[in-house]
Amino acid sequence: MLRLVQGRVLKKSLQALWLQVGPLGLEVQVPTPLLSLEEGREVQLFTRLEVREEGLFLYGFLEEEALNLFELLLSVNGVGPRLALSLLSHLSPGLLAQALREGDVKLLSSVPGVGKKLAERMVLELRTKAPPLAERAPDSEQVEEAILALLSLGFKESAVRATVLELAARLPQARSQDLIKEALKRLK
To answer: Looking at the predicted structure, is the pLDDT value of residue 134 above 70?
Structure first.
């Protein structure tokens, strides 16, 4: 089992990094935030290898906690690798674990591909299993203010909510105007 890969970023595609590991080139599916890694950078990823009919798929994460959460999500019926990766692309590991522990169905269902019923199933099955990852929760007033402002501009609610929540998880001290400014860059 491939659990750790260290190599140099050769190139990036829409959902993957290509890493040069010795004489090999590996395509590693990663959460969206990792696609910001610059080419040529040396990186170490915690990985999971999935063997499917279509081929071998390698999934990678910077933190071991993110890998553990990915594998925990895969234990839920209806959550495959793509959806688990989408959850970790839109929500930071700490925010995702917190949403599972606290039963935040609204936050979970704001991720594209996750409906209310699936979010409820994830909470039911993982509430007691989700690790207590330490993360400062974003100010909910600032988040809601930013979401309402962006909705008034005509953006889709699912895209707005997912984008603002991702930004708020990364910038927990951000004010609503900062969240709006950053979200506008991504939503256009």
So the answer is: no
